[in-house]
Fold this sequence. Notes:
The structure holds 2 protein chains of 2 kinds.
Chain A: E1 3-8, E2 11-16, H1 21-27, E3 51-54, E4 60-62, E5 73-75, H2 79-95, H3 110-117, E6 134-135, E7 141-144, H4 153-162, E8 167-170, E9 177-180, H5 197-201, E10 207-209, H6 222-232
Parallel strand pairs in A: 1-5
Antiparallel strand pairs in A: 1-2, 3-4, 3-5, 6-7, 7-10, 8-9
Chain B: E1 3-7, E2 17-23, E3 29-36, H1 42-45, H2 54-57, H3 66-81, H4 87-119, H5 130-136, H6 138-159, E4 168-169, E5 172-173, H7 179-209, H8 211-216, E6 223-228, E7 240-244, E8 250-255, E9 264-268, E10 275-279, H9 283-286, E11 289-290, H10 293-299, H11 306-316, H12 329-348, E12 368-375, E13 378-386, E14 392-398, H13 400-403, H14 405-419, H15 427-438, H16 444-447, E15 456-461, E16 467-473
Parallel strand pairs in B: 6-11
Antiparallel strand pairs in B: 1-2, 1-15, 2-3, 4-5, 6-7, 7-8, 9-10, 12-13, 13-14, 15-16
Amino acid sequence: MAAKTLTIDGKQISAEAGTTVLQAAREAGIRIPTLCHLEGIMDIGACRLCLVEVKGTTKLLSACTTKVFEGMEVTTTSERLQKYRRMTLELLFAERNHVCAVCVANGHCELQSLAYEQGMDHVRYDYCFPKWGMDLTHPSLGMDHNRCILCTRCVRVCWYIEGAGTKNVAGRGGRSMVISDMNEPWGDSETCTSCGKCVMSCPTGALFSKGSTAGESERDRSKLEFIVNAREKKQWTV
Amino acid sequence: MSKRIIIDPVTRIEGHAKISVFLDDAGNVSDAEFHVVEFRGFEKFCEGRSFSEMPGITPRICGICPVSHLLASAKAGDAIMAVNIPPAADKLRRLMNLGQIVQSHALSFFHLSAPDFLLGWDAPAETRNVFGLIASNEGLARAGIRLRQFGQEIIEVLGGKKIHPAWAVPGGVRSALSAEGAAKIRAWLPEAHQTTQVALGLFKKVLETHERETQLYGNFPSLFMGLVAPDGTWEHHGGRLRFTDSSGSTIADQIEPRDYKTVIGESSEDGSYLKSPYYLPLGREDGIYRVGPLARLNVCSRMGVPKADEELRNFRSFGHGSVTSSFLYHYARLIEILASLEYIERALADPDLSSQDLRADAGINSLRGVGASEAPRGTLFHDYTVDRDGKLLKVNLIVATGQNNLAMNRTVAQIARHFLKGTEVTEPMLNRIEHGIRCYDPCLSCSTHAAGKMALHLQLVGPDGSVVKDVVRD
Lengths: 238, 474
């Protein structure tokens, strides 16, 4: 496949055609913050954390869904980007009820880590304090909609890695929610295989193993990557 | 003309409150009330959460005694899972509670109350605090602060942090005591013992010169409640409830904490967010009971450790039957620190504390769970009702300070009656009334399930409700 040459933050790199800016940057050792991206599943550009500037367009583009092209000039850090990233994070925190101190994911949460990293010391927007509940009907897994940022990682792992298709999104805008099957209690789902990949993929404490207490939810995302690699490289084919 | 005096807010206590003193037409005190003016709503907003999260959420009620909520909450969780937790987990929880008793009692004695009786009731308000204590007796103040630190260290060694450790969980605890942790506590024990002995010596001297305070600071007959072991020994994180009356007779014994509703009624009053529990069989008027160090030392048959038992004998010489003066809460607190240190020493010799069998696992096996534990200020109950999935439908927390509410009202009335003369209100007078509250070491954050800064505001209010005199102290 043809290689494309481009610059990211002034660094000359070459990447295969079809590669995303995010992949190219990571290969070159340049870090772009992400939230809805998860190695091994398709990207959807939902969270807007990986926004980058590309010369020639005034629009900010999501690095996870923008493909490299010849002569592309990408900037991953600038005052403008910093401002939007922080704003995005603040809006995520204001939208639902995130209480880090008592959350199962405290200390192991991607949203929390990003907020620290981006210097989010307060939220300038009014908190919405929406009324969301928990789904504890599944025997071993639980969902707290208060902590969901609608990244849909769980939906994508459920469909594209496990192949169960249990998790879906219902509703519109801020009232969107992750549901099980046709919006049934999770415990009643006939399609859920209880594999727990959704819990493993969740960047926050929205999905958890029941019985976990504050700060106990540590996830090993490399397991998901392992499954994808094994499948794509036919390591399990007999 | 009859008046009402309001002290608002009350200082050097943990939380935000005010006191109203009612005067009759002749200018004599007719009654007094302690109001807690904060509202927190934990019982309500925990509804809909998972019971297993509660040991993480409820300690946030308070930064002084988070461990009490942690442990009571974990216990309520044990009951919902209907499990017997591993013996090592129970011993470790006990060790943490002992650390908590030491740190909280040291805070109450050295930081909050000692400035009154060591520096003098009439000492200027700006120096009558822990900084004044440091200026007048640095060695004592430092030792007191270190004693509190010792208790906090135990909590940190076990739970990973001093405040709000999410360490106890339904079914047990997360981690054991490390060898280094045990060594650290062991090495610190002699110093803690020494400070406690010094404080005991000091307070016994104070008692010799404070006969009037002993007589007047909340000295009245009431019932007392606390947890005791099956053989009646002092208990802090197990056992069952015992009530004794002021003559020292046991009127109810070995009541399972989960059956607390058969012995405790709750009333609420206008003007305070604090509920007023009372001993149900005797009704609200006669059923007034006290909890906390004074009560625990009155209800128990013995402390179960030698040095504290010796002190207990001396303590009991201050009463006929039960010790009824709330000024002796301070003495009881020191004896409990001593007992805790002796129990900590004993616990450290137990090899079980490094066990790896620490957490029982189970589903929902009971739709209601009650956890009771002795918090430094008295018996704490967490009562949870859940659905089949473990989601909380109802949360009831009965907190130590609430149980002392009626007694605190009576105490401030008694002190006000004696020290308030006419409409001339002086600062030392106010301070004495406030000290009546400090005896109980109330924790208002807990009792209203509160954060706030203490200052003092006193109003004289006429019978028509008009404010006659207004005294504010920041």
